[in-house]
Structures are given as structure tokens and as C-alpha cells.
Design goal:
The structure is a homodimer. With about 300 residues, the first copy, chain A, is an alpha/beta fold. The first copy, chain A, folds into two domains: about 260 residues, Metallo-beta-lactamase, Chain A (4-Layer Sandwich); about 35 residues, no CATH class. The first copy, chain A, is about 25% helix and about 25% strand. The first copy, chain A, contains ten helices and 17 strands. Chain A has an eight-stranded mixed sheet with strand order 6-5-4-3-2-1-16-17, covered by helices on one side. In chain A, helix 7 packs across helix 9 and helix 9 runs parallel beside helix 10. The longest helix of chain A is centred in the N-terminal third of the chain and has 12 residues. Chain A is globular. The two termini of chain A are about 25 Å apart. The mean pLDDT of chain A is about 95. At the A-B interface, helix 1, helix 2 and helix 3 of A face helix 1, helix 2 and helix 3 of B.
């Protein structure tokens, strides 16, 4: 199943002519899952051409305005386009207050909009994956998120099944679905199925100081998307404002042993080159996406992540 | 004094990959005056490179979300950039409620933000111009706006002044400022000053059905910026939603005898070509700007408006 990440908005709190406010889209098969929704996200989605209307789940990392100001306009556009499919919006404490303000200014919608305040330990189960909030450390209640695919069943061994006298046909399907069948004797699924294969994992830090909870959640992930608002020169400012430096993001990636690190939430005060060099000195497999760049993540045994980056 | 209009966002209620939500900037000398402020306007301003921080006045035509959702993010960015200069935001009834919602979600700013609900008959006096609300007809309280320059004094006649015995020097200045001075006898300013010269006028319709008040306000304007959400095929829909067709906008321009008509607030349902052709059949001096197009308006005696359009 295809799994791709679209970097829709890579700016920090202040957008620039080239970087829109924060938003990351995960595309998994036919599903579209949005993480944060800064001002202008709807147009970034239209530009990316990835199925703006198919978004069914939105996760907000925290309720600073630069991370949610795109929501009212997006809901309004869906309404005007005649959307009927429900949308669920998840986020930390305070989300319900925000939902009331948005309802007050925009009125009701013809499609169901559900606002769900998450707590740590929750797990949102999708079809073949789950999304969990991660404890992070910002100025206000905040989460990171992990998307973890459920392990795929192992490979079915045709030879083994025939050897055990299973009749080719429906019984093969039963074994693959986990049911025992009769051959020369009762055959259990584990006798003919190889070891379960790991799914993929993507972790998004949201705005945060570097924290062990993100390292733990990101362990072995294909991709860690970590904020890197500042370079190390501005470490004091990072501490004061609850953000991370590029070096700190790289240190998290290194300790979590992820395959790749992507830096987002970049302050206009630093150049992309400086941020990237700082991180790569610690964790070489770091990328710094431009807006509308994407990465495709194949299953681990199928090869490397494929980055489509405008600027290296 | 330079007078230019920047079309920042030319979409209707739903933005597209190419057209941002409604916003028009008037640049007059060092001043920047914004009319409407749809989602994404701050980035459009940055892209236009016309002095985002110099905006001191914002006029909202009405309080539908597509016309104001860019305000919170813009205020936030100013705050983060350390703005200290005041900003005044004008609009119809309901503006104060909006200001309270925005204050609730964003808190206070370090620069003064004044929200002023206008009524018909008000006139905001600037340095050499005034801006007045115009009665329009939309679904909710709404205004158009006219920007009218004060007439410039006529030309000072050096020959006439010398002939009347005025001493060259400070007395010339006094005459030009409207004071009488002594020559061979008392000389009145009107004896040495030519006829006053007309200033320039720009009218913005906002979202509205075609109305006589806009025709009246726009009479003789250099530029009428009129909404043209639909083509005539959708006249019923225009009536129902309180909008104008391209033909109706052209009819307003024709009756007001303006120099040029610019169509904005375009529905994604119609092509630019169809809208433009429909209007030009009635009023040939019609343009349909793309986002970030601009027009420079010289004083009437100095020549024609200069359009910088991406698509003809």
C-alpha cells in the first residue's frame, strides 16, 4: 500500500513568500490524514493535487494560531463544494473551545464535524494503522503523533501447505486469515505462514523541545518529522519559546535510530543551508523539504525512501 | 504622487490553486491601504513585495469568512515581527464582535489595533484623500468603498503674479497656499492660480448585486473594481446569493462612465475568458486581473492607466 508524506507548509510561526504555515499530509492508500492546518493549507492542498476532499482525519499538535488558522476556511470550502463525508479533528485540550469559536463564526455544516480532545494513551485505529499522541514539551498543551502500521502477515508457503496435504483452494485462504484447516492432519496457520512483517512508522514531533518521549515513539521509524525552528546559536531562544534547534532534532533522530529525519517549522531568521548543515553533522540522513515536496516510503524490505525534493 | 492597485486575491468564496481569497491593496505614495483580507493575504502581500508592514488601514466590505480570515494571521505576524505602529480596521456592523473573537484567540498585541464600525455617510480623511463607504446589497451588512483624492490646486502663474507687482519670494508661497498678498494692490490667490485639478478616484464594489449607489459613487472614476462572481447563465444564482454577473458589472461601469473596469471575486465555476468576454461586449475597457497583477493610475492629465497583467 502506498505511503507518502507531503510537506504542505514548512514555515515556523511566520510564513514567508516561499514557506506556508505548518501542515503535513500523510497519504496512505486512498486515505488522506492531515497534521496541523496553518493559514493557507487549503490552497497548498489544492496545489499538491493530492485529493483535498478525501481528508477525513485532522490532527492538531497544539493550539497556537499558526497551526490551526487554516481550518475555518477549509471547512467553509468543503461546505460550498457540497461535502457530505464526515471529518474528525483531533487535538489537545482546548480543542473544544476552538470548535465553539469556529461554529460561532461559520455556523453549522452539512457534513458531520467531530472535534475530539485527546489524552495520552489514546490510540486512533484506522484500517491497517493506528495513530497515537506523544507527550511533548511546548508552551501550551501539545502532542506529537506517531502513525504505526499493524504488522503484515508473513508469507504463505505453498510448498509447506501441499506437503501437509492441504487441498489447494479455499483452505489456503483460511490459513492466511488465521484459521486452522484439515490436511493429512489438522494444520495450524503458523505452520505454513512465515514470520509477521513489520509495518511502517512515521513520527511527527509538533512544536517541542527535544524530549525522550519522541525518541521512544520514533525508535526505528522510517521517517521522523521533527521541528527545527532555530540553529544552535539561538539555543537560549529555543528553550525560552519551547522549540528545538536543528542539532537537537538531529540528536533525537540519532538516538531513535530512524531511517530519515525531515526538518520542518523553520524560522525565517535562519537559512535552510545552515539548519541542514547543523543537523547533518550529527545525523547525515537529514532532509529539509521545501513546500510541496514529498517522500514515498516503501515497506522496509522493498527498499529505501524516495524523496522528491526541490532543493536537494 | 504614485497611485497603484495590487490585486492580491481575485477568487470568490472558494480559492483555487491560482487565485487566493479576496484582497486588494491600494498603494498611494508611502501609504498602503488594504481592502478585504481573505485567508492567505499576508503571504500574497509578501509575494507582491509592496511593504506588508506599512499597512495602516484595512477596510472590510463585509464579514463573510472569505473576506476576513487573513486578519488573525496578519496581526500575529506583525506581533512576532515587533510592530509598534497602529492599525485601524474598518467595516460594517458586526466588526466589533469579530474583534472580540480575535482578541479571545490571539490575546493582546503590542501595537494598537482599532476596530471601527462604519455607517453610511462616514468619511475617513487621509493625507490628500478620503475613503467613504458605499451602500451595497449583499446577504449581510456590506459596503463598497470609494477612495477619492482631494482636488489639487491649479497651476501658479508666475507671469500673472509679476504683472500684478507681487515680489518674488515668500509671497509666491502665500498665494499658492491661498492667502492674499500685496502687489501694486491686494492680489487674491484666484487671480494667479489656475483652475483646481481633479484628483483620482477608485471604487471597490465589494460583494453585491449591481446597485445605483455604486454607479453614483463610481461616476468618472479612473478605476472601478467590481465583483463578477458569475456569468449571465447563472443570473438566478447571482440574485439568490447577492452577487453580480460579469454583464451586470459591465453595465455598472458603462453607466458610471469610468475609465476602466477590473473584475474580481471570480467563481471557479466560470473561465476567466467567459467572464471577460461577457463584460467586454458591454464595456470594452474591462480587465480581469490575475493574482499579484497591478495597475498604476497617473493623474488624468498625465495619461492612461498602466496595467501590468499576466494574462492580457
Amino acid at each position: 500500500m502506498e505511503l507518502a508524506v507531503h510537506f504542505l507548509g514548512t514555515a515556523g510561526a511566520v510564513p514567508t513568500p516561499h514557506r506556508s504555515s505548518p501542515a503535513v499530509l500523510i497519504q496512505r492508500g486512498g486515505e488522506r490524514i492531515l497534521f496541523d492546518c496553518g493559514e493557507g493549507t487549503q490552497r497548498q492542498l489544492m496545489r499538491a493535487g493530492v485529493g483535498f476532499n478525501q481528508i477525513g482525519l485532522i490532527f492538531l499538535t497544539h493550539l497556537h494560531a499558526d497551526h490551526y488558522l487554516g481550518i475555518p476556511g477549509m471547512l467553509k470550502t468543503w461546505q460550498l463544494w457540497g461535502r457530505l463525508e464526515p471529518v474528525k479533528i483531533y487535538g489537545p485540550k482546548g480543542l473544544r473551545d476552538l470548535s465553539e469559536i469556529i461554529r460561532k463564526i461559520l455556523g453549522r455544516f452539512d457534513f458531520p464535524v467531530e472535534w475530539i480532545e485527546l489524552s495520552l494513551g489514546s490510540s486512533i485505529k484506522g484500517d491497517g494503522y493506528s495513530i497515537c499522541p506523544i507527550s511533548t514539551s511546548h508552551k501550551i498543551p501539545s502532542f506529537g503523533y506517531s502513525l504505526v502500521e499493524v504488522p503484515r502477515p508473513g508469507k504463505f508457503s505453498l510448498e509447506k501447505a501441499l506437503e501437509l496435504g492441504v487441498t489447494p483452494g479455499p483452505d489456503f485462504g483460511r490459513l492466511q486469515r488465521g484459521e486452522a484447516v484439515m490436511g493429512t492432519r489438522e494444520v495450524r496457520p503458523d505452520e505454513v505462514m512465515g514470520e509477521g512483517r513489520k509495518g511502517r512508522k512515521i513520527v511527527i514531533s509538533g512544536d517541542t523541545r527535544p524530549v525522550p518521549e519522541v525518541i521512544e515513539a520514533a525508535r526505528g521509524a522510517q521517517l521522523l518529522i521533527h521541528e527545527a525552528t532555530f540553529t544552535s546559536d539561538a539555543l537560549d531562544r529555543a528553550k525560552e519559546t519551547g522549540h528545538s534547534t536543528a542539532a537537537e532534532a538531529a540528536e533525537v533522530a540519532l538516538q531513535a535510530e530512524v531511517d530519515y529525519l525531515a526538518l520542518i517549522h523553520l524560522s525565517f531568521r535562519h537559512t535552510a543551508r545552515d539548519l541542514l548543515n547543523e543537523a547533518r553533522a550529527i545525523f547525515p540522513r537529514t532532509v529539509l523539504p521545501s513546500d510541496l515536496d514529498r517522500v514515498v516510503l516503501p515497506y522496509p524490505e522493498k527498499g529505501e525512501a524516495l524523496f522528491e525534493l526541490r532543493n536537494g
